[in-house]
Amino acid sequence: MLLSLSLALHTPAALAADPAGLDPAAMYTSPAPDGASMPGSSSGSSKSSSKSSNSSSSSKNNKSSSSSKNNSKNKSSSSTDANGDKFFKTFRVAGFKVKPYVAPGGGVVISGTSLAATAGVDGGFKYTHKKWTGDLYGGVAGAFGGSTTSSYDVHIGDDTGARFKLWGATLGVEGAYNGYVFSNGSTVAPAATGSLPLKVLVGPKKYHVAVGIAPSITSDPSRHVDWAKYKAIGFGDEFSWMVVGAINIKSVAIKVGFTQQTLGDNGKPVITNTPSISVGIGDSLNFSTSGN
For residue 249, how many other CB atoms are within 10 A of its CB? Predict the structure, then answer.
């Protein structure tokens, strides 16, 4: 009884005074469920640090590679404008995007039994701001063929209007100097003319069909058409209408059109029909309804 009580009283004190009284092996083996964490923790930390370092290095390499690719793309795109045009660059004037272009073209002019080939070139500046669009242009054209058929035309003008997603319209003003001689005997005296072309188009910006009319006045009274006497269709001193189909491929606009003019020969109407085609080089800036 006394021995039992003595053991009961001294055992806690002995343990407190000598912690090593606990099994020393147990002190090191107790974390065994963690799989020898003491020696392994240093290795795990090293591996984690290594992975973090590799991840950081990989991230830097990826960023460097991405930056290099972006720089390469920027250098590549610097040789073209936003429309992918390698011919002419877009610039800004008073908030408007402005782009130069040149449009050589040709066709056939037919008047009665007279037939002649035509050729010419227009050039100018297309401009746009939000929904507004326009074309400041100038050009020369001529026709030669048959025995005496010939014509010449020098013109300058501007078309301004609005361009929406699927349609647009422009109203312009054009000044020209021209004259015509046809092999069938009709003659249109050389004169200065002024016209007001009105055009409406239908279709998206990359392709569309445009129709238009252009009444005009002339400086030579002999070119004034007597509409009532000859029951011709039109108004003004002279009159023309046109239809143009256009498609824009990157920096080139291809236009195929037909124009009918009613000109005056001492009051008598002289009608010309001209199918034509033109290739607008640099014509990629929201190209307008102009049938150059």
Answer: 11
- CB neighbours of 79 closer than 8 A, spacing ≥ 6? 86
Contact between 230 and 268 under an 8 Å Cβ cutoff? The reply is: yes
Beta-bridged to residue 14, according to DSSP, are none
Q: pLDDT tens-digit profile of 104-149?
A: 999 999 988 888 899 999 999 999 998 999 999 999 999 987 666 7
Provide the 3-class DSSP secondary structure of residue 13. helix
Neighbouring C-alpha atoms within 13 Å toward the C-beta of 163: 24
The residue to which tokens 């004034």 are assigned: 224
Beta strands in the chain (DSSP E): 91-93, 96-111, 114-129, 132-145, 149-163, 167-181, 187-195, 198-202, 207-218, 238-249, 252-265, 268-281
Contact 123, 89 (CB under 8 A): no
pTM (two decimals) = 0.68
255 in Cβ contact with 277 (< 8 Å): yes
